[in-house]
Amino acid sequence: LQRRQAALRDQPGQLRDGRLVGLWANIGRPAEARLAREYGAEGIGLFRTEFLFLDRSAPPDEDEQYTAYCAVLDELPGKPVVIRTLDIGGDKPLPYLPLSPEANPFLGVRGLRLSMQRPDLFQIQLRALLRAAFRGDIWIMLPMVATPADLAWARAQLVEAAAALAAAGVDHRPDPPLGVMIETPAAAVLADQLARDAAFFSIGSNDLAQYTLAVDRGHPTLAARYPSNDSSVWRMIDLAARAAQQAGIPIGICGELGGEPDAAPALVGLGLHELSMAPARIPAVKERLLQTSWAEAQAAAARALAGWREA
Ligand code: PEP
Ligand code: MG
Fold first, then answer.
1. Residue 254 is a catalytic residue
2. First and final CA of the chain: distance in angstroms?
3. Is the predicted pLDDT of residue 310 greater than 80, yes or no?
4. How far apart are CA 128 and CA 141, in angstroms?
5. 100 CB-near residues (< 8 Å, 6+ apart)
6. Taking each helix axis from N to C terminus, what angle separates 205-213 and 231-247, rounded to the nearest 10 degrees?
7. Which strand (E) or helix (H) includes residue 75?
8. Is residue 255 within 6 Å of ligand 1 at its C-beta?
9. Does ligand 1 lie within 6 Å of residue 45's CB atom?
10. N or C: which end of the chain has fewer CB within 10 A?
């Protein structure tokens, strides 16, 4: 069994008939990058950077962030590492970041919207990311994008951060891939417009389901009736996948749905290039894909769009 597991770990994610599917890992701390490698992750599809900001009285400075990002690169040499900018909101108050109380924090200042409110913090994070991108294959990912104007704002911020580093003579890569999470219905619906200026998409199915179905993602009783594999969510994913294909940019998923073996064939059938998940879920998803042909994946996608709960 162990030999089978080691052999599985060392082969790339692919369908039975050879179509390659990147199997990447989600991590929340640099130390988890090692686990990702041990489970055979071909990249990091989501590095949540919230850990740097939580449980402390002052925000992390540029060097501390740079060190954390480089630690992940060092663990997975040569592999792509998608780092998400700070994704926090009114539901998780930070002492150094006073936010006005909100009646609906999930519909309020969270993700990129918080960065818009605190561009000083965003600049520090972007500078750290651009410096780390000089050392390895870093992709920068924006959470909670709703409109093309959100992306344009972030793009201008990135240009500003690169200019500051250039002026100071600091080693950096000015133009790493800048991508967006598709986790609001607006982003899915306007994916064709976002794709003009985004280098990649990643489906945030946890929030995309929450906002599409209008059901709190942690709701104790409604999840069974409104699951994140509802056909409404699949249709949102399909919109983004078609836009990505049209624009020729890669699209992946980093929400929980991406780590479900039962969802994997349909995700690939819709045209996703990469599935990112908790490291321990990689082997089961890999096994499932190895049993699936491209024709079967496409059939699974068609069923998902039609509504696969026939009962
Ligand atoms: C998501 O929303 O699917 C996602 C991956 O981000 P998070 O779970 O951190 O909100
Ligand atoms: Mg999210």
1. yes
2. 38
3. no
4. 14
5. 90, 109
6. 120
7. helix 62-75
8. yes
9. no
10. C
In angstroms, the CA 208 to CA 213 distance is 8
Answer yes or no: are the C-beta atoms of 130 and 176 closer than 8 Å: yes
Q: Which ligand is nearest to the CA of 209?
A: 1
Reported as a pLDDT band with limits 50, 70 and 90, residue 311 is very low
208, 210, 213, 218 alpha-carbon torsion, rounded to 10° = 150
Contact present, 277 and 295 (Cβ < 8 Å): no
Copy the structure tokens of residue 146: 């709703």
Continuous segment of H or E residues that includes residue 81: strand 81-84
Residue 140 CA neighbour count, 13 Å, CB half: 26
Determine the 3-state secondary structure of 277 from DSSP: strand
Catalytic choice (254, 268, 270, 285): 254
In whole angstroms, what is the distance from residue 263 CA to residue 275 CA? Answer: 10
Length of the chain: 311
- Each as own residue / partner, the long-range contacts of residues 212-220 (CB below 8 Å, 24 or more positions apart, any chain) are 212/185, 212/236, 216/106
Our answer on whether the CB atom of 206 is closer than 6 Å to any ligand 1 atom is yes
